[in-house]
DNA sequence: CTGAAAGCGCTTACAG
DNA sequence: CTGAAAGCGCTTACAG
C-alpha cells in the first residue's frame, strides 16, 4: 500500500496538484469553484489522503510540531496535566505537541535543528545561547520565567507568590515561628529558592522572624531530622511551609514519628493539591494552582508567537489559592 | 542565518554532496579516504551542520521519531519514569521519542500518517484496524498487551500477576476474607479487570472466597462507602487489595474515618510504590514494579523491530515484588 | 574513490 | 479560475 499523495488526489478528481493544494489549504486570495472544491475534497476523503508532514516541512521550513522541553527533574502530576491541556488546546490549531524529557542527553541545539519545530516551549529556563540561536533561526521561543515577567512570550508563574501565600495563611492562623521545608533535589533549587524568597518577604512584611530552612527528602528519616532541628531551641517552630505536597507529606510523617500533633503542635501547608494531600492524615492544607489557566496562557502565547491567535494571551487573576484542610 | 545544508559542507570541504552524505552516514560498502573523511567531518563541525530531518524523512520515507502513544487516562509517575528510561535508551540509537497524550482528539491514523514515525509504541492497546494500517504502511508497531503474550513485539506486563501477588501476600498474613478496591475511572477498567482476575484466580487456588469488589474514588466519602459495605454482613472483610497506591491511600482514609485500625482490623496493599505510600500512616505495603526493566524491554523491542538491535529483547524475571510495610 | 542527476511530496510564484 | 515548473535538503543508484 503505497502512500497516497496529492498527485493521486489530483488524478482522482481530474485537477492539478496546485488546485488540490489550494483547496486543502483553504488558501485565501485564491478562489476555487464550489464544484471543483467538492470534487477534490471527496477524492481526498475517498483515498484517505494525509499530506506528508515531511514534505510540507521541507517546503515551508517549518513543521506543525511544537517542541515542548521539560526540565531534567521529575515533573509530577502538575506538569502532566499542563501538557494535556496544552496538547488539546494546540491540537485545535493543527499543532502537535512533542514533549521531550531532556535529561541533559544531547544538546538542545541538535534537537531543535533536527525536528524543525514551528515553536519551542520551554517548561524550564533555557540557556541564553540556545534561546538566541533559535530566535536567530526564526523559531519563536516561549520560555518560562520563575518570577513575574512583562514579556508575553515569557510564561511566568510567580513562584514567590506561592511561598508568600503559604506564609500569609500560616500567619493568619496565628503562627509566628515558621519553617520552610525545601526539596533536597538540587535541580529544584531554582523553584524552591523563589518560593522561599517569597515566604521570607512576607515574614519580613508581617514582622515575623525568618523562616528556618531545612531540606527534606521524601522519606521519614530525613523528615525526622528536620523536625528535630526545627523544634530545638527556645523558640520551636509551630508551622511548616513545604515546597510541595510530597515534601509536606514527608514532614507530616516526620512529625508523626516524633509524636507531635498536627495542627496543634505544628501546622503544615503544601503546594499542588495532589490527590494524596486530601487523603493524608490529617488532610493536608495546600496551595492549589490553576493549571488549566496556565496551560491556556501558554497555548495562547504560542499561537500569538505564530501569528495564529485571535486573542492575545490573557493573564488570569486567580492563579493560586489556599485549600484549607485539617493540617493548619 | 540561513540553514547550513550538506551543500555548504561540500563546498567548504571541496567535495560533492554525495561524499558528504557517505561520510556522515558512515555508509558501509563505500570506502572514503581518511583525509577526505576528516576534511568533511571538520567542515561539518565548523559550520555546525545538522541534517534536516524533514528532507531525510522525505527521502527515506521514515523519520527518526518513535511515536509513543499514551492511553487516555491520567498516567502518573510510573509511566513518566518509563518514558524517561525509554527516551534515554533510544536516544543512544539516534531515535527521538515523541510522546503523544492522545486524549482521543483526532484519530491515531492522522497522527501517524502526519508524523511518519519509524516506529509506533503503544502504551495502551490499539485498535485492530489502526495496528493493521500501520503494519501495512511498513511501520513496526510495538504494542502493549495486558497479559502474557508470546510475541516479542508485544510488551506485556502480566497484570493478572499483580493482583495474584497481592492476594498471596494477604493470604500469607492470615487473611481469608478479601476485598478488591477498583478504580472508579472506566478508562482503567481494562487494567483493573485483569488485576482483579488475577486476584480471583489466586483466591480460588487457595480456597478463599471471592474478593468483594467495590469502586473507590480518590476521596474519603467514596472510600467510606466501600468500607462500610465490606465490613457489613457476617463475614467482614479483613484485608483489601487496591488497584494502585492512590486507591489504597483512599481506602486507608476511609478506614480511618470509620475508626478501624490498620492492619489490625483491616490490612491494605497497593501497587506502584509511589512516594506517598511510604509516607502514609500507616506506611503502605505495596507491589513494586521494575519500571527500568520494562523500559529496557520496550526499547529492545523497538530496536529489534527496526533491525537495529544487537540483542533480542530479554524478559526479566523479577518484574514485581511486594514491599512490606506497616499496612499489612 | 568521487561526482552529476534524479526524485521523495509538497507549496507557490508565475503564466495562462 | 487552473496548470506547468521550480525548489525545499537529502540520499542513492549510476557513471566515471
Automatic annotation (TrEMBL), chains A, B:
<feature type="domain" description="HTH lacI-type">
    <location>
        <begin position="4"/>
        <end position="60"/>
    </location>
</feature>
<dbReference type="InterPro" id="IPR000843">
    <property type="entry name" value="HTH_LacI"/>
</dbReference>
<dbReference type="InterPro" id="IPR028082">
    <property type="entry name" value="Peripla_BP_I"/>
</dbReference>
<dbReference type="GO" id="GO:0000976">
    <property type="term" value="F:transcription cis-regulatory region binding"/>
</dbReference>
<keyword id="KW-0805">Transcription regulation</keyword>
<dbReference type="Pfam" id="PF00356">
    <property type="entry name" value="LacI"/>
</dbReference>
<dbReference type="Pfam" id="PF13377">
    <property type="entry name" value="Peripla_BP_3"/>
</dbReference>
<dbReference type="GO" id="GO:0003700">
    <property type="term" value="F:DNA-binding transcription factor activity"/>
</dbReference>
<dbReference type="InterPro" id="IPR046335">
    <property type="entry name" value="LacI/GalR-like_sensor"/>
</dbReference>
<keyword id="KW-0238">DNA-binding</keyword>
<protein>
    <submittedName>
        <fullName>Transcriptional regulator, LacI family</fullName>
    </submittedName>
</protein>
<keyword id="KW-0804">Transcription</keyword>
<dbReference type="InterPro" id="IPR010982">
    <property type="entry name" value="Lambda_DNA-bd_dom_sf"/>
</dbReference>
